[in-house]
């Protein structure tokens, strides 16, 4: 009887030990599985966020608006009073030409300044004045491009406000025209055709031009 009692106790002890071991194994397996699932979820979330960021970046690039080079870039032009004294403020960082009366901006034009890849295609900074040289058309064999409505502001015909670049037969060069709003020129200021004509028609010789970053 004592032997039977001892055997039963021993079997119960073994059962308890085996049960505990099984529980611990299952618990550890569940913990490991949970950790693995959390890691997987984190990776998935990171991948999704990364894909979303790339998608947003691509979308921004693809939705970049092309400026209509046949239209005023800042809406309707202002009505000028007789002998209204204006000056021109050009921001290279903004790629904008601000037409000003005193300290008030009365019109904003989108431009393309010099590429700045070397001294030959950089736009000079400083204070200048519109010069006497201007015209409705020019063509440069050196650069194989021309433009309409040009107005000189430095070096008497070297640095100009003018329309987007054109071929010798006066057709707009789309590759350049589409870059309005970013650096693209040999140092001049590219403008939409109507903007260039507005400066040609309304900005007199002697008008101050300030060019800065």
From TrEMBL:
Residues 34-73 are annotated as: Disordered. Gene3D superfamilies: L,D-transpeptidase catalytic domain-like. GO terms for biological process: cell wall organization; peptidoglycan-protein cross-linking; regulation of cell shape. GO terms for cellular component: extracellular region. Residues 1-20 form the signal peptide. Residues 86-212 form the L,D-TPase catalytic domain. Pathway: Cell wall biogenesis; peptidoglycan biosynthesis. Keywords: Cell shape, Cell wall biogenesis/degradation, Peptidoglycan synthesis, Signal, Transferase. One of its GO terms (molecular function) is peptidoglycan L,D-transpeptidase activity. The active site is at residues 162, 188. Pfam families: YkuD (PF03734). PANTHER family: L,D-TRANSPEPTIDASE, L,D-TRANSPEPTIDASE YCIB-RELATED. This is L,D-transpeptidase. It comes from Heyndrickxia ginsengihumi.
């Amino acid at each position: 009887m004592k032997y039977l009692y001892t055997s039963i106790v021993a079997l119960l002890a073994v059962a308890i030990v085996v049960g505990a071991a099984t529980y611990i194994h299952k618990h550890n397996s569940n913990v490991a599985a949970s950790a693995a699932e959390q890691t997987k979820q984190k990776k998935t979330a990171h991948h999704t966020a990364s894909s979303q960021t790339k998608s947003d970046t691509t979308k921004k690039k693809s939705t970049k608006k092309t400026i209509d080079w046949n239209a005023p870039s800042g809406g309707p032009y202002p009505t000028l009073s007789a002998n209204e004294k204006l000056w021109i403020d050009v921001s290279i960082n903004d790629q904008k030409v601000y037409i000003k009366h005193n300290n008030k901006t009365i019109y904003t034009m989108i431009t393309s300044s010099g590429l700045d890849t070397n001294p030959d295609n950089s736009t000079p900074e400083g204070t200048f004045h519109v010069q006497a040289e201007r015209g409705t058309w020019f063509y440069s064999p050196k650069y194989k491009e021309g433009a309409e409505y040009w107005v000189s502001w430095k070096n008497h015909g070297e640095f100009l406000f003018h329309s987007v670049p054109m071929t010798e037969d006066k057709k707009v060069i789309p590759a350049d025209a589409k870059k309005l709003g970013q650096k693209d020129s040999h140092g001049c200021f590219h403008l939409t055709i109507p903007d260039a004509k507005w400066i040609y028609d309304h900005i007199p010789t002697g008008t101050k031009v300030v060019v800065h970053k």
